[in-house]
Automatic annotation (TrEMBL):
<keyword id="KW-0812">Transmembrane</keyword>
<keyword id="KW-0472">Membrane</keyword>
<feature type="signal peptide">
    <location>
        <begin position="1"/>
        <end position="22"/>
    </location>
</feature>
<keyword id="KW-0732">Signal</keyword>
<keyword id="KW-1133">Transmembrane helix</keyword>
<dbReference type="InterPro" id="IPR009038">
    <property type="entry name" value="GOLD_dom"/>
</dbReference>
<dbReference type="GO" id="GO:0016020">
    <property type="term" value="C:membrane"/>
</dbReference>
<protein>
    <recommendedName>
        <fullName>GOLD domain-containing protein</fullName>
    </recommendedName>
</protein>
<feature type="transmembrane region" description="Helical">
    <location>
        <begin position="190"/>
        <end position="214"/>
    </location>
</feature>
<dbReference type="InterPro" id="IPR015720">
    <property type="entry name" value="Emp24-like"/>
</dbReference>
<comment type="similarity">
    <text>Belongs to the EMP24/GP25L family.</text>
</comment>
<feature type="domain" description="GOLD">
    <location>
        <begin position="39"/>
        <end position="130"/>
    </location>
</feature>
<dbReference type="Pfam" id="PF01105">
    <property type="entry name" value="EMP24_GP25L"/>
</dbReference>
Length: 223
C-alpha cells in the first residue's frame, strides 16, 4: 500500500514538473522568414559529446530549396542543400533530418541560407532537440524509488515529441500542397483570361481588316 501511495505521489510530482518546466529533452521549434539574398541564424551552446538532432523544413517560397550550415567553434559540422519539392525522393522522412555528435564545447550557429533566391522570401521551420534535464534533476534529489516512473515519463515525453513532429510535418506538407494548388489555379485562371483576351482581340482585328477591305473595294469601284 505504501509503495502505491509513493508511486501516486511520484506520478503527481512528475506531471507537475513536466507541466511547469517542460521536457528538457523536447524539441525547440523556430519559424524563420528569410528574405532573398540573405540568411538567418540560431545560436545555441552545446557541450562536447552531445547528440545533436535537428529537423528542418521549407514551408513555402519558390522552389522550396534550402541550404543549412551548422558551424562549431572550430569548423563547419554540416553544410547541405536540400529541395523539398521533389516527389521522387527516396525517403522523405529522412529529408531535412540532421544527427551529429558535437566534438567541441561552445556556441554553435545554425544558419538558413536564402542567397540563391532573387525575389521570393522563404519560410523555414527548425526543430532542435534539447538536452534532457528531468532524469538528472531527480537523480540529484536521490529519489531512487522513482526510477521506473521516471523512465516511463521520459519515454512518454519522447513519444509525444515524435507525435508532435509528425503532426507538424503533416501540416507543413498540407500547406505546401495547398500553396501548389492555389498557385496552379491562379496560373490556370490567368491563362484563361489571356486566352479570352487574345480571342477577342483577334476577332476585333478580323472585323477591322474585313471592313477595311470592303471599304477599299468600294472606293476602287467608284473610281
Amino acid at each position: 500500500m505504501l509503495e502505491v501511495i509513493r508511486a501516486c505521489w511520484a506520478l503527481t510530482f512528475l506531471s507537475f514538473f513536466v507541466a511547469v518546466s517542460g521536457t528538457g529533452g523536447g524539441f525547440h521549434t523556430w519559424t524563420l522568414v528569410v528574405e532573398p539574398k540573405s540568411e538567418d541564424c540560431v545560436y545555441e551552446h552545446y557541450e562536447a559529446g552531445h547528440d545533436f538532432e535537428m529537423k528542418y523544413e521549407v514551408n513555402r517560397g519558390g522552389l522550396l530549396d534550402v541550404r543549412v550550415v551548422i558551424n562549431g567553434p572550430q569548423n563547419t559540422l554540416y553544410d547541405k542543400m536540400e529541395f523539398f519539392n521533389r516527389a521522387d525522393a527516396a525517403n522523405n522522412d529522412k529529408l531535412g533530418l540532421v544527427k551529429i555528435k558535437i566534438p567541441v564545447s561552445g556556441v554553435h550557429s545554425i544558419c538558413i541560407d536564402n542567397i540563391m533566391s532573387r525575389y521570393t522570401p522563404k519560410t523555414y521551420t527548425l526543430s532542435i532537440k534539447g538536452e534532457s534535464n528531468i532524469k538528472s534533476t531527480l537523480e540529484n534529489a536521490k529519489l531512487e524509488h522513482l526510477g521506473p516512473v521516471v523512465d516511463s515519463v521520459i519515454k512518454v515525453s519522447e513519444d509525444m515529441d515524435g507525435i508532435v513532429r509528425q503532426q507538424h510535418a503533416l501540416r507543413v506538407r498540407e500547406q505546401i500542397h495547398r500553396d501548389t494548388q492555389e498557385n496552379t489555379n491562379y496560373r490556370v485562371q490567368l491563362l484563361a483570361i489571356i486566352e479570352a483576351l487574345s480571342f477577342v482581340s483577334l476577332n476585333v482585328l478580323q472585323i477591322y481588316f474585313i471592313r477595311s477591305w470592303f471599304a477599299d473595294a468600294g472606293t476602287r469601284r467608284r473610281v
